[in-house]
Design a protein that fits this description.
Order of helices and strands: EHEHHEEHEHEHEHEHHHHEHEHEHEHEE
Strand order of the largest sheet: 3-2-1-4-5-6
Oligomer: single chain
Distance between the termini: 52 Å
Strand content: 5-15%
Largest sheet: 6 strands, parallel
Low-confidence stretches: none
Number of strands: 14
Shape: elongated
Radius of gyration: 23 Å
Structural class: alpha/beta
Length: 431
């Protein structure tokens, strides 16, 4: 098929590259000229395992990038994969999505035949019907369900494994409100994935598809917060929370994933999506207590880590290492990272902070330019009076010799990546 993708961030770039790998002709549309130039040169502006080789293989061939929205008219289907950032109250700012919808509406105004617009961006259900569709209809002077179709196809890609998550999905959700032409196009588009992996395909309404994305992330966020809460209780009774988690994970009603207690969740999706659900529910007159509790507990975990450190070291004027700055291993993304409140808490305590991350140091330096950034984890640990492990990069599991270089070998591990051993004072956040 011939597809166009508006937006070349994490979701859009991965979507474009994977569609090309599936055999489709793809036009990536972005307003940023540098992004377009780099895509056409086979480069991404983001770090994502497996993405670079795909771009190198298809850029200039099945994958072309442009700043011209008019190119969408030459395709069969257009995906809107632009950002939907949070407003100060947690609600979603849909202005970028609405601008993209208007641009695509104008682009297909003179097109003969049916054109499908698919919303990949994450927005609350009412935004689709009340804002996005009217915007496309007004700009194109076409009617949804007649000359054009609008579908919702949420993404479930994790940073650090986005390519694999797209190519080997747990499910594909197609929200079309029963538009058979839209379903036929999306079925043909995704046919290679469905046939290769026997993927469950959920055919549902547009509003339901939009809510599935939020519900998915809220459930996972709540699951992490619950295991963190249980982990905090386990620590009070000197119980190994990970042994408890291993056992309850065997119950198929619970499952073993997302049961690693620690310093909490971050990233671009969980914080934004839980905030949007809370804001949307409150606007409708309902207090979503479980979701609010999951967020509140997550916000407390970094301070608990710092309190454990306080129990061993008076950090004022002391050199303290922070290991891990990205919100998870395998990415350079610092959105929602638990390292931010940890660093802020250390600076508020007048500590001298030295930080290390294999990918995210440069990005974090823009936000905290006055702290020191080491070239390696071993360098970060030299002569420090304490270390806080915030991201579970695999290399942090092999730092035995480096701990010997600490002035005061106190390690507070927020991810259970460091092995307990003689010679260091070790505490886990919830074990």
């Amino acid at each position: 098929m011939n597809a166009s993708v508006v937006g070349s961030g994490y979701v859009g770039t991965t979507l474009s590259a994977c569609l090309a790998d599936m055999g489709h002709e793809v036009t990536a549309i972005d307003i940023d000229e540098e992004t377009v130039e780099r895509l056409n040169g086979g480069e991404a502006r983001i770090h994502e395992p497996g993405l670079g080789p795909l771009l190198s293989a298809y850029a200039g061939g099945r994958l072309q990038a442009t700043t011209e929205h008019a190119a969408a008219a030459e395709t069969d289907v257009t995906f809107l994969a632009v950002g939907t950032p949070s407003n100060p109250d947690g609600s979603i700012d849909a202005s970028i999505l609405l601008a993209a919808a208007e641009d695509i509406g104008r682009a297909i105004a003179d097109k003969d035949g049916y054109h499908l617009v698919v919303v990949k961006s994450t927005v609350m259900p009412d935004v689709i019907d009340e804002e996005v569709i009217p915007q496309i209809e007004a700009a194109s002077e076409k009617t949804d369900g007649e000359e054009i179709g609008v579908a919702v196809n949420p993404e479930f890609q994790r940073e650090g494994s986005a390519v694999r998550d797209f190519m080997e999905p747990d499910k594909i959700v197609l929200g079309t409100d029963g538009d058979e032409r839209a379903l036929d196009i999306l079925a043909e588009l995704y046919q290679p994935l469905v046939s290769d992996w026997e993927v469950p395909v959920v055919e549902t309404g547009r509003r339901e598809a939009a809510m599935i994305k939020y519900a998915n992330n809220a459930f996972l966020a709540a699951k992490i917060s619950l295991i963190n809460d249980l982990g905090n209780v386990c620590k009070l009774f000197d119980v190994d929370a990970y042994e408890v988690a291993d056992a309850i994970g065997l119950d198929d009603r619970i499952g073993e994933q997302f049961l690693r207690s620690g310093v909490g969740w971050g990233g671009s999706c969980f914080p934004k999506d839980t905030a949007a659900l809370v804001a949307g529910a409150r606007a409708a007159g309902y207090e979503p207590l479980m979701i609010e509790a999951a967020v509140e507990l997550n916000d407390r975990q970094p301070e608990r880590l710092l309190e454990l450190l306080d129990g061993h070291v008076d950090v004022e004027g002391k050199r303290i290492a922070v290991l891990g700055l990205a919100f998870k291993p395998g990415t350079d993304d610092i959105r929602g990272t638990r390292a931010r409140p940890v660093i802020e808490g250390l600076l508020a305590r007048d500590a001298d902070v030295v930080a290390y991350d294999p990918l995210a140091a440069e990005t974090m330096a823009e936000e905290f330019p006055k702290i020191e950034y080491a070239e390696s984890a071993a360098e970060a640990l030299e002569d420090v009076h304490g270390a806080a492990v915030v991201t579970d990069w695999p290399e942090f599991a092999d730092l035995d010799a480096a701990f010997d270089a600490m002035a005061n070998p106190v390690v507070i591990d927020g991810r259970r990546i460091v092995e307990r051993r003689r010679g260091i004072v070790y505490e886990g956040l919830t074990w």
